[in-house]
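User: Hey, quick favor. My workstation is busy. Could you predict this chain's structure for me?
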Amino acid sequence: MPGSSSDYLLIRGARQLLTLRGPSGPRRGAALRDLGIIQDGAVLIRSGVIYCLGPSSRIENLSEARKAREIDAAGCVVMPGFVDSHTHLVCGPARLVDYDMRLSGASYEEIAAAGGGILQSMRAVRELPIRRLVLQARRAVDAFIRHGTTTLEAKSGYGLNEPSERKALRAIAALNGKPLDLVATFLGAHAVPPEFAGKADAYIEWLCTYLMPKIRRRRMAEFADVYCERSAFSVEQARRYLAAARELGFVPKVHAEQFSHIGGIRLAVEMEAASADHCDYADDGDVELLARSGTIATLLPGAVFHLGLTHYPPARKLIDGGAAVALATDFNPGTSPTCSMPMMLSLACSQMRMTPAEAIAAATINGAHALRLASRVGSIEAGKQADLVLFKVPDYREIPYRFGANQVAMTIKRGIILYEQAEIQWERD
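Assistant: No problem, here it is.
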């Protein structure tokens, strides 16, 4: 039954158990393709933590397994739950006017100039009470669970003033652990709000000297992110913001090289950021820098797809060049309104020429590294949280192969079944 728990839970008979066991750091190069597959595998869970794993014939004969509740995973792929390391979870309603305008040929910049884009979401987040924001975010969390995600990063960044940014972060805190782990990121430098129109430097200074210290003192966020783009903040402004964030104890992250190449990835490496996200316009120099650094390139193909663009991140160049690559949804109401990590796998394979194995590793263990959580989640190893997803397919390659289809049979968080797909009910002759 969903939501049930006991001391021991045995998942047995998996056609393929993808353990993702491997090196301690983020996966790079050939290591990204090593899924640590156990055929006919089993996982024994005790009190929400992975106790042991291996071939079913061995695990089933353990004395602890004999008293465990059982899940028969015959014919299924069992793998770590997805770790979605880039979402704008608290964002208000869908931006359908933006969608109509884009389909009529308007550019991202034209939509913003007409009052749409980020500023439309800003108005919504400022106006809505926190209970409405929590409700909207909870519905999204439910959709993430149905698609196999068990850990989420969640950003602020649509309030752009003190009360609304704090309200967004309180909404994230209210949902943390209910039931997914949510990692909060402060994205005050998402856009210049109307109160600071034409005064981006002054806004950055206000964030650095006033709002960020308050956010940090209250421990409302672990990461601090900045949108480094010609239509948002320059490299110099982003550097000032991230330097202040790092001094306060935030871990830096950067929206980098999404629509143009202005030096955001170089800045991310310079600032020892956990991740540089988007990277659509990464060049050879960026690849070399990332390969020599601990900064992960988090690729967000959903935004490229939804915007109807064709310039996807150069995943093959990044992987072959030695960079650590993660995948995430970029869930947000304007450019990537999806909660489906399986769809991100499909786009990664078909549009960025990643292999299915690389895509799965990028969406699990490397996503965990991008959130500094790899010691707890992202792989199936003894001592880690029992965050698992069962796919009703016999081979992991079918997950991206069947694009747009949700093949998730079960999502498990800390040993508790959160979601179980039901059979279609109809009269059969």
